């Protein structure tokens, strides 16, 4: 085991020294690397606004004494605390470790990554530290040395000595879980994934959360979710799709993988003074505002999931589109890949799920002025005509991720400020041939194979919006209208 630990430590040091690119945006084959990812942090200092600290948040357990970090020989800047919240997100930094000597997780991470206890305690509180009993299998791109050390660490003779994995399948042993306490014991051979730079949400500290509460019942709370905030983090198991960092078969849905603290569920719980955290029942994109149902109990969370599954929940949306849309049902098919951007086709493609929405009305409204755009961080995505926008009421018939955003963009009417889908719509407006799944594809045949066509289509999309787009979940109801709730006026009115 000492040799194995030394080998993993060697990998970590060597990869840091090689200054490899960050994991963010890398292909899956690169994301699943066996050891620490190195990161370019030059000229990126930790900036923080002096925001009012949330009074009820205690980020360090009583048994952890904050300390001032000593000067580090590494090129990473010094860390102190995760609050106050920085005004901007730092470049992603994800570290992959294998525990060489068993002990408290806080102590091990501090030593392995040269981080102060107060900062690591904050990371654990944020839900940014994960473990698996066995290090996941390396990708085809792994080096011979990485493969050798993986084989040593997972050799049957080594694994047989670990009682914690007896009776478990390979997939079960490699499944990751969040570390929930600073004193949680991790045994030798345990795999750790540490998100050293959690994705932050400064918007959470700017909201009057009590004013956003629509209804409170014994079973649930209805929140008028602000744009620019995460609902919460959750995982769904899916046996045929594999996109998570080193986590075969599990999909991340909504929220952020590395930050449970700065979410709608957490802040709404505090605003109402509840001791039991509110639970997520469904998802809304970070950049979307509107009606969100949060369960007060696990039981009602299951009940509401059942209502969604049985199509007893009805959702209406207001969309501020950049061009007019016809009233009626719009049908597309979405590529079955749990990654943004979502690609859709006007024609049926085998394996692509059906996407349908109904435009109930569409009315012409003035384009938002610069004052409103600045207040809500509305992005100028280069749409050529900005005299008028079009407010559409939409009945969502199928609930696919990014469905409204992707479908409206495919119709040439992208949502205002949608920096991910509007660039693709503009490109198609200029040259319809760029969309291999559009209505003009027969007139403009694509010679490349499907995989290349998909890559080219994805490249026309932009980044995820920073705060608000013109989309609001304006109404939600279930049980044939017995429970009916409406959001306030959208930001653009």
Detailed description of the structure:
- By secondary structure, the chain is an alpha+beta fold.
- It is built from 13 helices and 19 strands.
- The chain has helices at residues 2-18, 28-31, 105-113, 117-126, 144-153, 156-159, 170-174, 264-272, 298-309, 370-375, 403-410, 422-430, 450-459, and strands at 94-98, 103-104, 129-132, 177-178, 185-186, 191-195, 213-216, 220-225, 235-237, 250-252, 279-280, 289-295, 313-321, 328-334, 344-345, 354-366, 388-396, 471-478, 483-486.
- The strands form four sheets. Strands 7, 8, 11, 12, 13, 14, 15, 16, 17, 18 and 19 form an eleven-stranded mixed beta sheet that branches.
- The longest helix is centred in the N-terminal third of the chain and has 17 residues, at 2-18.
- The radius of gyration is 24 Å and the shape is globular.
- Residues 1-75 and 233-255 have low confidence and may be disordered.
Number of helices: 13
Could you tell me the number of beta strands? 19
Average pLDDT value? 79
Rg, Cα atoms, Å: 24 Å
Distance between the termini: 64 Å
Protein name: Pseudouridine synthase RsuA/RluA-like domain-containing protein
Organism: Rhododendron griersonianum
Domain Pseudouridine synthase RsuA/RluA-like: 220-410
GO molecular function: pseudouridine synthase activity; RNA binding
What characteristics describe this protein?
493 residues, alpha+beta, 11-stranded mixed β-sheet, 4-stranded antiparallel β-sheet, 13 helices, 19 strands, 23% helix, globular, RluA_PseudoU_synthase
Provide a brief overview of the structure:
With 493 residues, the protein is of the alpha+beta class. 23% of the residues lie in helices and 20% in strands.
